[in-house]
Amino acid sequence: MGWKESLLPASFRGVAFEVSTVDGEHGRRIVDHDFPGLDQPRPEDMGRRARRFVIEGFLVGTDYLDRKQDLINACEAAGVGELVHPYRGTLRVVCYRLRTRESERDGGMVTLSMEFGEAGEELLLRTVQTADDLRQVRASTLEQVRAGFREAYDLAHAPADLAQDALDGVDNLLTLVGDARRIVGAGEDFRRVLENIISRKTQVAYDAEELSSALEDLFTLGTDPGESVTDARGQFDEMRALLDQQTEPSYDATDPPAGQVDRLAQGQQVSAMAGLLSVADFDSAEDLQEASGVVLDRIEALIDASVDGETASGLADLRAALMADLNARTLDLPSLVKYTPAQDVPALVLSWELYQDVDHESLILARNKVEHPGFVPGGREIEVVTDA
User: Fold this and answer.
1) pLDDT at 121 over 80
2) 1, 31, 141, 330 — which has fewest CB within 10 A?
3) DSSP assignment, residue 200?
4) 341 C-beta neighbours (distance < 10 Å), count
5) How far apart are CA 43 and CA 11, in angstroms?
6) How far apart are CA 211 and CA 264, in angstroms?
C-alpha cells in the first residue's frame, strides 16, 4: 500500500473535511536562567512541549454551508474532542482556533485553517511522588543556601558598622521568629534552640557554620514533609505572616554581611514553606495556587538577588519542584465558583442544595464570613467550591 492509500479521512468530532496541508510542532519546554558569576545560562527543562497540529483544508459542495456550521460548532464546543489526523490517526485534542475563508470567485467552498493541541490522558498525577521529589529538593536547597552563606560570610573582617548591622539583623530575626512560630514555638526543641542562640547571640553571629545551622533549625523545625507535621496549614500561615514582615531582597554587588544573613534566613524560610505546602490542606485549587504564589514570588526574588551561582541553582531547583507538586495537587482539589442565592437561606440548607450533604456548612460560613449560620444573604455573590 502506498502512502496516499494509507491516509485517513480527516474529521473533528465526527465532522469530515478535506485536507490540503498539515504542520506539526514538537520539542521541549525550556526556560533559560542567567545567574550571577556564571558565564553559561542554565536551561531548565519543564517537560515535553504540548504537540500542536495546524491543518489547512476545505469544504466543497452544495451542502458546504451546513458542514461549515457543524465544524464551527465542533470547534466551539467545550472540552476535549476526537481528531482523525490523516497521518497520525485518532488523537484526543482541543481546538485552539478555526479560521474560515470564502470568496465570490471560489463559490461553493470554504477554506479552513485549524489549530489543534494534544490533550493527553485525563490521569491524576502522582502527588505522592511529586511531594517526595519536593522533599529531596528541599533538603538539597537548604544545603546549597547554607554552603553559599558559609563561603561568603566573614563578620570578623567586616567594618565595624557593617558588622553591627549584621548583629542587629540577627537580633531582629530572632525576635520575629520567636513571635511568629507559635505552633511549634511551645515545643521544648524549638525553645531550646531559640534560647541557646539568644544567650550566645554575638558568638553565634560571628560563626558562619553555627549561625546558618541555628537559623535553619528555627525556620525548619517541624516542617519536614517526610515526618509528622503538626498543623501544616497553620504553620504555613504563621510563616507567611513572618515573610510579609521581611523586605524582599534585591541584588547588591557589595554584598554586606547583613544582606547575607537576610538572604540566608529567607532562603531557609521559603524552603520550609515549600515543604509545608506539600502536606497542608487547602479548600480549593485557587487557595493552593495563591499560597504557592507567595512562595514562588519570594524564591524568584531570592534568585535575582543571589550573588553566587550555587545558591541560585538550588533555589531554581526548589521552584521547579514546588511547581511540579503544585500542578499535581491542584488536580485533586475542587475549584472556586461564584454563586448568588436567590434569597436568604440557612448555610445548612445551602450546603444540602449544592452538595447533597451538610458537611460544607462550615466551609460556606468561613469562606464568606457569614455572621449568622441561619442567614446566608440572598442576592449577594458568595464563593463556593465546585464539588466535595
Assistant:
1) no
2) 1
3) T
4) 18
5) 39
6) 10
